[in-house]
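Re: beginner question about structure tokens

> Can someone show what the tokenized structure looks like for a real chain? I only ever see the sequence side.

Sure, here's an example I had lying around. Input first:
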Amino acid sequence: MSPLNPSALYCAYLRKSRKDVELEALGQGETLARHEKQLRDLADRLGVSIAETYREIVSGDTIAERPEVRRLLDDVAAGLWAGVLVMDVDRLGRGDSIDQGVIMQTFLYSGTLIITPDKTYDPADESDSEFFEIKLFFSRREYNMIKKRMQRGRVAAALAGCYSSPRAVFGYERYKLPDRKGWSLRPVPEKAEIVRMVYRWYADGVDGHSIGTSGIASRLIDMGVKTDLGGNFSPSSVRQMLQNPTYIGKIQWNTRTTVNRIENGRRVRSRPRSDRPILVDGLHEPIVDAALFARVQDIFSHHGKWPGNVHATPINPLAGLLYCGVCGHAMTIKGDPNRRGDFVVCKTQRCASYSAYLSVVEGMVLEILRGWIVDYETARPDARQRADDRQTAAATVRQLTAQLQTLETQSGRLFDLLESGVYDVATYRQRRADLDSRLAQTREALDQARKPSRPAPLDLYIPKLRQTLSAYAAASTPAEKNALLKQVVERITYHKTQRCYRNNGLADHLTLDVFPKYPDPDGDN
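And the corresponding structure tokens:
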């Protein structure tokens, strides 16, 4: 193909494969740094510059699980790049046919090149497009075969008593088995004693009183005990510890399976419990006595279970919107018969955020939305300015129409000048090429001028805000209110790190950062 345009903009995309991780373990250096140097050398040879590099540091089977490739595809679709440099096309994605179709169409419609050390793919070229599609197909097939082999290997290792998870549970550390393939666990003495203590607390109580998972989490926090990831213990992490058979020397595997389904045209992944779990004796030393473990499981079995999805619809108008400004986790609501209604709380154990009444937070959100309408109306161009803009656009159309008519008249007379001998053939061809170019440019400019202007986000957002506030007042259920707020609000960050006392107002020390959700001018929102 023709040389690349050195004045155009190019980018690079970097992502590790599983094979790269294995090579790194053998001492071949950090993959992304090595690939980045190779792509920069390739750019130098081609005479182009890399303006931006997208580095994918998370692994995922789909586009939805890889934020950098999503950002890359958005920029490619916007026409930002003339070409993308990548080590191989399968680095862009080994997803299913849906993901591969998204990748191919994005590059095709934007006319963006895919530049690899072996070949440059032009999606507009039929042979390149077919070759690109074949490469993606075979890379996906190879990826599926690798996953099957890895899964069979993990199952075989689990059945042999090896520990296949990449991270040890609290109280153990992983180590490579010296005489065979696979990994196992060995106790970390100080952490193993904490595990035994947690089991005794739950089975026997503390100071003659029973203690649940919340109480145990609080005691561990008071003692300064951290999880292996450096965070605080929570009731759920304590519950997982108390129900994990790894602590009695067992290996469990395939307790959950991944199930994909399509909902509203989008893939949704779930992890239901498997009907074929693996539970075998492990090669590692147990930490907890089997009798103590059985007593703990018996206590759990006699607890009443909260029915799953008892509230299938939101009971909180701020569900999925309100997040703690201290720890970043979602806020929830809690009721108390001695209080004046529900209040919002952070569900992170020992978080520094204090609670506030739901009605107060909800009222502040609505007040902020009302303030937005005033601010946005002030920021919008006034009616006179918009009318002037429309008049300017109409004048441009008239000017371009007259210019096009003049050029078409000149085009019609051009051949007459050749026949009459005023122009020789060379002059005719030169004038014809110049005139055709000017005609094409003028027609394109006229088409653009005649296109209706895209509505500005604020022109769509202000009516949506008014409609939301009006409908919110008439909404009868939290689910209806929640759906209305999600049309105009992306996220709300909750800040309150001081307690309110009797002399304080209900909204004192409380601030909210509300982020608008602008509608897409080309979409339905």
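Each token stands for a local structural state, so reading them left to right follows the chain. The CA atoms of residues 248 and 288 lie 5 Å apart.
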